[in-house]
Design brief:
This protein has 254 residues and is α/β, with parallel strands linked by helices. 45% of the residues lie in helices and 14% in strands. The chain is built from eight helices and seven strands. The longest helix is centred in the middle third of the chain and has 29 residues, at 109-137. The protein binds NADP nicotinamide-adenine-dinucleotide phosphate (NAP).
């Protein structure tokens, strides 16, 4: 059997209507997982569900819209997944926000709190909702999509970077707490990826040049190039790995 096989596994991927989350959900389905597509917009989620079910058969994917800022929405996401698929083996906390661009001196308390709420506390909520059943089964993989921003300083996305650094620590801490129960928690730290989220950094040719000239691979990444790391972290290929941050950035941080 392939170490990367996910047959029989159930995965929730937040923010999977497009971008990195969609690529992760699609590639997990390719490996045999049943996947839950979630974002704020029901219609966008259903489109992804239809595409996955068209390729892999009805019942492979379901849509459960949820706003990560709402605890009630996240509880419904977990409850509806359990009702439809019976269990959750893999949780990918991928959705995040970055509503503020500029130096930390200019951020309002409200903006700062929003970033911490959406990028850190909401991950904590969702993990606390899913972990008990993983612990009871002594099997589970939790993946947080952080960012190389969490490893570096920045004059413009410092607030976001603080939240992404906190995600690394969240993973380390929970890895310690859940490790004795055979539940693993890891982060992926992508570099610049061609999605709507980072559009401002790659759409304009001048910005693109700036973003990539110091990168060993001399280009930005595609969403599917993050999906392999998620499949690895979800699968038997990574059963001895926990609490880590996997950097996938075309070499930028080296
Ligand atoms: N792109 C990059 O260069 C890059 C680099 C490093 C890290 N990352 C990280 O990668 C992750 C995914 O980003 P992406 O680039 O794939 O972004 P994206 O293409 O903009 O997709 C974001 C996804 O999250 C959903 N979403 C946004 N706000 C949400 C909310 N409040 N509740 C629920 N879902 C929400 C969006 O759908 P709706 O609008 O329908 O809700 C969409 O499905 C994020 O954690 C980001 O920080 C991205």
């Amino acid at each position: 059997m392939s170490l990367f096989d996910l047959t029989g596994k159930v995965a929730i991927v937040t923010g999977s209507s497009r971008g990195i989350g969609r690529a992760i959900a699609e590639q997990m389905a390719v490996q045999g997982a049943r996947v839950v597509i979630s974002s704020r917009k029901a219609e966008a989620c259903q489109e992804v569900v239809d595409a996955i079910n068209g390729r892999h058969g009805a019942g492979t994917a379901i849509a459960v819209p949820a706003n990560i800022s709402s605890k009630e929405d996240l509880q419904r996401l977990v409850d509806e997944t359990s009702r439809a698929f019976g269990k959750i083996d893999v949780l990918v906390c991928n959705a995040a926000s970055n509503p503020y661009y500029g130096p930390m001196s200019g951020v309002t308390d409200e903006q700062f709190r929003k970033v911490l709420d959406n990028n850190v506390i909401s991950n904590h909520w969702l993990i606390q909702m899913v972990a008990p059943q993983m612990i009871a089964r002594r099997d589970g993989s939790i993946i947080i999509v952080s960012s190389i921003g969490g490893l570096r300083g920045s004059p413009t996305i410092g607030v976001y970077n603080v939240s992404k650094a906190a995600d690394f620590q969240l993973a380390r801490n929970l890895a310690v707490e859940f490790g004795p129960h055979n539940v693993r928690v890891n982060c992926i730290a992508p570099g610049l990826i061609r999605t709507d989220f980072a559009r401002a950094l790659w759409e304009d040719p001048e910005r693109y040049k700036q973003s990539t000239q110091g990168a060993p691979l001399r280009r930005i990444g595609e969403p599917v190039e993050i999906a392999g790391a998620a499949v690895f972290l979800a699968s038997a290929a990574s059963t001895f790995m926990t609490g880590q941050a996997m950097v996938v950035d075309g070499g930028v941080t080296i």
